[in-house]
Design a protein that fits this description.
Blueprint: H1 3-11, H2 18-21, E1 37-43, H3 47-50, H4 54-64, E2 69-75, H5 79-88, E3 106-110, H6 117-127, E4 142-146, E5 162-164, H7 168-185, H8 189-196, E6 202-203, E7 208-212, E8 218-223, E9 233-234, E10 262-265, E11 267-268, H9 278-282, E12 287-288, H10 291-305, E13 309-313, H11 323-334, E14 340-342, H12 353-359, E15 367-372, H13 376-381, H14 388-400, E16 405-412, H15 419-438, E17 449-456, H16 473-487, E18 493-497, H17 500-510, H18 516-526, H19 539-549, H20 554-557, E19 572-573, H21 578-590
Parallel strand pairs: 1-2, 1-3, 3-4, 4-5, 9-19, 10-13, 13-14, 15-16, 16-17, 17-18
Antiparallel strand pairs: 5-6, 7-8, 11-12
C-alpha cells in the first residue's frame, strides 16, 4: 500500500480528518519534476490554527509564484493522528502531494508562540528528521525558522539550521536562491549555512559561541572564528508594501478554521509604542498599502474565494491614514454581495465612528477594544495613551450606532500594578454599562453583553519590559480572584482569564537562552505537546523536565534582569535599540508617556535602516 493509501486508512480513525485531506480549492499543485526546489512550510499547530495565519499565506504565495519552487503545507497532527501515524509508521507529510516532509529540500517553520516549541520537536520526530542539527545528514532538509519568536531563537538554537528575522517575503526567496547555488556547487552542507549567513536577516546559531558568568548570566555571544558571521544580525525589512507580493487568491478550506475569511493586511508596523507589545517594536516602521492597491486586492480575493467577509488587518487598524475612506469604498463595492468588512481589536482612542458606521452596514459583530489596564496611572506606565474619556466616547458612539456586544482585553501582572489597578477593570465595566443605558431605549439595541478578558502579562524581548520578571503565579491567582469577585457585582459581564502556569512557561522561554534546549527536549520526551491547548498542557511534566535538567525556571521567568546584563538576544537587531528600550523602561517607572512617533521621532533607532521612516 502506498503512502497516500495508508494516510487514507488513518483518516477514518481520527476526530477531524479534514485536517489531513488536502485537495482544497486554491492549493498550489505542480509537478515535482518541473521544479528545482521543494519547500515544506510547517505551522506547528493544528490545521485550523495554521490556515488562519496570514504570514503563512503570504509566504506560500510568494514561493509558489516562482516556477522553480513548489511550496507545500504541513501542520502538526493532533494527538490522535500523531499516535496513529507512529503506530502505522506513517511519516509527517504535506497536504498538496502527500510527500514525506523529510524528502523536501527546505523546511520552513513559523514560530508564533513559545508554547508551540514542543510541537516543533514533535513534527521533526514525526517527519523522521533528527532533532539536533548536528545529527542531520546530506539527505535531510535544512530547517529554517521565522516569525516573532525568532527574535529570541536561543532556546531552539540546537534544533534549527537557520533563523529568519524580520519580514520574510524577500529573505525567504533569498534562502531559496542560495540553496540552488549551493546545490549546483556540490559543496558540503556547512557551505549552505555560510552562504545564508550573508543574507540580511538570516542568523545561523551554530556559527556563534555563548559563554556564561559564574552567576549563570551570559558573558558574551560571539561569532566563531572563520565563519564570517556578523557580530550582530539585523532584521530584514520590506520597504515598499505596495510593491511587496500579496496573495490574489487563497486556499479555501473544506472545514472551519479560526479565521475563515479574507485577511487583508492594510499596513505593517505600529507607531504607538505600547511598552508591553513586542509586535509593536519588532515590526517597525509603519508601511502602508495604498487604498487603490487594497481595493484591487479585495476585488481579486472576493472573486477568487467566495468569502463573505474581509478583515482589515494590522496591529492598530484604526491608525490607517485613510481608514474611513477605505471602509466606505469597500462597503459600497461589496454591499450587494453581502460581504462584511470587519476590524480587529481596536484602540479606544482612534476616531472610529464613521468607520464603524460603514463596516457594519452589512451586519454587526461584537465591538472589540483593548484598554489593557484598569486605571489611567497604569495605562500611562504601559504607554497605552488612552483615557477614560476615550472609552466613554467610543462605546457610547458604538451603542448609538446599534451595538450591544462589546469585548475588552486587559492584562494582569503589568509592572507596578496594584490592587487598585486590578479593581479598576471592574470599574470600567460599570462605566460601560452606564454608557449603554445613557442611550435612549428606542435608539439602543437590546441585550447588552460585556466580555472582560484578562490575560497574564508576559515580558518579551525587544520591549521596554524585557528586563521585568513575571508576577509569581500565586499572586496572579490572587489578583484574578479579586477581579472575579468584584465583577460578580456588575450585571451582565462575562469574565475570562488565563491559567498562570501556561503563561509562566511562556515567559521562561520568551526570555530563555540555549540552556533551555535540553529542558525543551526532555519535556517533549516526557509527553508535552500542544502546550497552548489547555486540555493538553501538563505543568507537572514541565516541572519534572526542569528538575531533570537541573534548570531553575525562575531564573528566566521571575527574575528581574540587570539593565547592564547581556541578554540572550543582544546579538540580534530588531530595529529598536537597547538604549531606546532602556529609556522607555525608565519612563515607565516614572509613569511618563512617549508620544506616537507619527507626531515626531522618538529616537527608537529604526532610522539606522535604509528606507525606514521616510
Amino acid at each position: 500500500m502506498n503512502l497516500s493509501d495508508r494516510i487514507e486508512a488513518l483518516l477514518a480513525q481520527v476526530q477531524k480528518p479534514v485536517r489531513y485531506m488536502g485537495g482544497e480549492f486554491g492549493a498550489a499543485m505542480k509537478d515535482a519534476g518541473d521544479v528545482d526546489v521543494r519547500y515544506a512550510f510547517l505551522f506547528p499547530d493544528t490545521y485550523e490554527v495554521g490556515m488562519s495565519h496570514l504570514g503563512m499565506r503570504i509566504l506560500y504565495d510568494a514561493l509558489n509564484r516562482r516556477e522553480d519552487v513548489w511550496c507545500e503545507r504541513a501542520f502538526t497532527p493532533w494527538v490522535d493522528m500523531a499516535d496513529a501515524m507512529r503506530a502505522e509508521g506513517v511519516p509527517l507529510f504535506t497536504l498538496e502531494s502527500r510527500t514525506p516532509v523529510r524528502e523536501f529540500d527546505l523546511l520552513g517553520i513559523t514560530l508564533q508562540y513559545e508554547m508551540s516549541y514542543t510541537n516543533v520537536l514533535e513534527s521533526l520526530d514525526l517527519a523522521g528528521i533528527p532533532l539536533r542539527r548536528e545529527e542531520r545528514g546530506s539527505d535531510d532538509p535544512f530547517v529554517i525558522c521565522g516569525g516573532p519568536c525568532a527574535f529570541n531563537p536561543e532556546p531552539l538554537a540546537p534544533f534549527v539550521d537557520l533563523f529568519a528575522l524580520g519580514d520574510g517575503e524577500e529573505e525567504t526567496l533569498a534562502t531559496v536562491d542560495a540553496y540552488k547555488a549551493w546545490k549546483r556547487s556540490g559543496a558540503p552542507r556547512e557551505e549552505y549555512l555560510r552562504m545564508c549567513a550573508k543574507i540580511p536577516g538570516i542568523y545561523v546559531p551554530s556559527f556563534y559561541d555563548v559563554t556564561y558568568n559564574s552567576d549563570g548570566t551570559i558573558a558574551a555571544v560571539t561569532p566563531k572564528p572563520g565563519t564570517d558571521a556578523p557580530e550582530v544580525v539585523r532584521k530584514a525589512m520590506v520597504r515598499d508594501l505596495n510593491a511587496a507580493v500579496y496573495p490574489e487568491s487563497l486556499i479555501v478550506p473544506y472545514g472551519e478554521i479560526v479565521h475563515n475569511r479574507i485577511m487583508l493586511e492594510i499596513f505593517r508596523g505600529c507607531t504607538r509604542g505600547c511598552r508591553f507589545c513586542q509586535a509593536g517594536m519588532i515590526y517597525r516602521p509603519v508601511r502602508e498599502r495604498s487604498r487603490q492597491r487594497l481595493m484591487a486586492l479585495a476585488e481579486k480575493l472576493v472573486a477568487s474565494t467566495g468569502y463573505d467577509e474581509i478583515s482589515l488587518m494590522s496591529l492598530s487598524s484604526g491608525d490607517y491614514s485613510c481608514l474611513p475612506e477605505l471602509a466606505h469604498d469597500m462597503v459600497e463595492r461589496f454591499a450587494r454581495k453581502r460581504v462584511k468588512i470587519s476590524l480587529p481589536s481596536q484602540r479606544i482612542d482612534a476616531v472610529l465612528t464613521d468607520t464603524l458606521k460603514e463596516t457594519q452596514k452589512v451586519r454587526k459583530t461584537a465591538l472589540t477594544l483593548a484598554p489593557e489596564a484598569g486605571t489611567q496611572r497604569l495605562r500611562d506606565v504601559i504607554n497605552k495613551g488612552v483615557t477614560e474619556e476615550d472609552l466613554v466616547r467610543s462605546v457610547t458612539d458604538a451603542f448609538e450606532q446599534g451595538w450591544s456586544a462589546v469585548k475588552f482585553y486587559f492584562m494582569i501582572g503589568l509592572p507596578t500594578e496594584t490592587d487598585e489597578d486590578v479593581l479598576g477593570i471592574a470599574e470600567l465595566a460599570r462605566l460601560v454599562r452606564r454608557c449603554y443605558f445613557s442611550v435612549p431605549k428606542e435608539r439602543r439595541a437590546p441585550g447588552l453583553r460585556i466580555t472582560v478578558s484578562a490575560s497574564v502579562f508576559v515580558p518579551k524581548p525587544f520591549t521596554p519590559f524585557q528586563w521585568c520578571g513575571q508576577l509569581e503565579s500565586g499572586e496572579v491567582i490572587r489578583r484574578q480572584k479579586l477581579l472575579r469577585d468584584e465583577l460578580r457585582t456588575v450585571k451582565g459581564v462575562d469574565f475570562k482569564y488565563h491559567a498562570p502556569d501556561v503563561s509562566y512557561i511562556e515567559a521562561v522561554f520568551a526570555r530563555g537562552d540555549r540552556r533551555l534546549a535540553d529542558v525543551l527536549e526532555r519535556a517533549w520526551r516526557l509527553g508535552c505537546r500542544f502546550d497552548g491547548w489547555s486540555d493538553q498542557f501538563r505543568y507537572d511534566l514541565w516541572l519534572q523536565a526542569f528538575a531533570d535538567c537541573g534548570v531553575d525556571p525562575a531564573f528566566y521567568g521571575l527574575r528581574e534582569f540587570g539593565l547592564d546584563e547581556v541578554l540572550p538576544w543582544d546579538h540580534l537587531d530588531a530595529g529598536v535599540t537597547k538604549e531606546f528600550l532602556r529609556r522607555e523602561w525608565d519612563k515607565a517607572q516614572r509613569g511618563e508617556r512617549t508620544q506616537d512617533c507619527r507626531k515626531g521621532c522618538v529616537g527608537c533607532g529604526m532610522k539606522r535602516y535604509e528606507g525606514a521612516c521616510v
